Amino acid sequence: MQILLFLLFNTLHLSNKRGLLAVIQMIFAILLICFVAQRIAGDTADVSAELDPIRMRYNMPGLSTIALKRGEIVAQGASGYRRQGESTPLLVTDPINIGSCSKWMTATLAGRLVDRKILSWTTQIRECFPDFMSFSSVFRNATLEQFLAHRSGVQQSTTFYSRHYNKLIIQKGTFREIRHWVAETVLKDGPEVSPGEYLYANQGYAVAAAMIEQITGQDWESLIQEHVFTPLQMTSATIGVVYNESIPPKTPVGHDLPSTTITPIPRPLLSPTVLHNDQSAAGPGGYIACTLQDWAKFLHAHVVGVSTGYLTAETSEKLKRPFIGVEGYGLGVSAYNRTWATPGQALVHSGDIFGQNTVFWMTPSRDLIVATYANCRSEDGRTGAALDTVAGLLIGRYAYNMTRSRTAIREPIILDHLSIFPRTD
Q1: What is the SS3 assignment for 15?
Q2: Where is the signal peptide, in residue numbers (predicted)?
Q3: Is the peptide bond before 248 cis (omega within 30 degrees of 0)?
Q4: CA separation for the pair 307, 173 (Å, rounded)
Q5: Domain 45-398 bears CATH identifier 3.40.710.10
Q6: Mean of the per-residue pLDDT values for the chain?
Q7: Mean per-residue pLDDT, 155-181
Q8: Is the pLDDT of residue 307 over 50?
Q9: Would you state the pLDDT for residue 413?
Q10: CA 218 to CA 191: how far, in whole Å?
Q11: Which pTM was predicted?
């Protein structure tokens, strides 16, 4: 403003008409820039105050969310604290552990390799492991896409940890070496359900990652960086727990909320050895962390990935549809028919790890993405209710508007908690 006043004052002393015109044009340009900047800032709604009553109703230490429409952030906000009992606020730009929402990233990595003809969706176990004859005969012809779709029959996490946890934590080696041991272990055990039957299994993603590692000669950690984080400019993305025991907390701390209390309890960190070995066993299905903004970049890549060349049309479509039938789980994401998502389907996944929970809902046909986070895991569904309430609020507000406008606000959408999948850390 001082610059504008200076220019205006000096304009009054100009006798040269050209000089006067130039200054007026300069003033107009500056005003236009200021106007555009204010419109851009104003078009992103801060919904922090709307999160407060939801957070308090469900006893969450912190809640945050983001909504993306047509590739631009239309709403975001955060409420509460990084750690119960501490005054450091949760920020909407904080890095968070997205848990099992990592699965779609691993499936997308596989899709990028399929597009490059490095492997195929039907690549079999026998093609990846020289010692496949030592595995259960049921698994020898199991395919990459079956593991990504939870249709291989491989054991679920509770079974794996009950049988093999003590051996897992004493394994030595790199992530890839221990992951290979995990894959061989579950493949030798035999199926928990018949192949083709749906069974949500984190270790199925460890097997899928091990197959990819065997084919490419690279570990999953470097491949996810090369094919997801880097091309999508997810500069905050990391692998592993985002918080430590520091006070005041520098990042959001995970919590547990027992059914008998209203006070969340900060979750202690696992030991470095356990974290290292468990990343080998569950990392491809749950260990990715990033900000909400970077997560939204990945999700939006599944809206515009064909036009940007990130994915082929065939792979892009495959990664957004159910593996079997018209609704249900696909490759790292679920697809459901919802009126607010028409003419396409609503895509959804949730995550739960280290006492941090997430969910995203999106409708590619309307180019709307909503992602929500709580730094708390509850035993009785309060976390899921909080996440879906926030997501429903923003979906109701933006799904029916085909532009970025906030006009014609609708009532919140009731999401019926289909986002809440079986929870395993």
Answers
A1: coil
A2: none
A3: yes
A4: 41
A5: yes
A6: 87
A7: 95
A8: yes
A9: 52
A10: 27
A11: 0.86
Coil, helix or strand at residue 324: coil
Distance CA 63, CA 391 (A): 11
For residue 283, give every residue at least 6 positions away whose Cβ sits within 8 Å of its Cβ, in sequence order, or none.
Answer: 102, 175, 179, 206, 209, 220, 221, 239
Q: Which two tokens stand for residue 422?
A: 């079986």
- CA nearest 59: which of 316, 261, 292, 231? 261
Render pLDDT for 325-367 as a digit per residue (tens, 0 to 9). Answer: 999 999 999 999 998 998 999 999 999 999 999 999 999 999 9
**Please, are residues 142 and 125 in contact by the beta-carbon 8 Å criterion?**
yes
The 10 Å Cβ neighbour count of residue 265 is 16
Q: How confident is the model at residue 1 (pLDDT cuts 50, 70, 90)?
A: very low
The reported pLDDT for the residue numbered 212 is: 98
Q: At 61, give phi and psi (nearest 5°).
A: -70, -35
Spell out the domain ranges in the chain: 45-398
Helix or strand holding residue 89 (H, E): none
Please, what is the Cα angle at 157 between 151 and 159, to 5 degrees? 100
Helix (H) or strand (E) holding 36: helix 17-42
d(CA 304, CA 320): 12
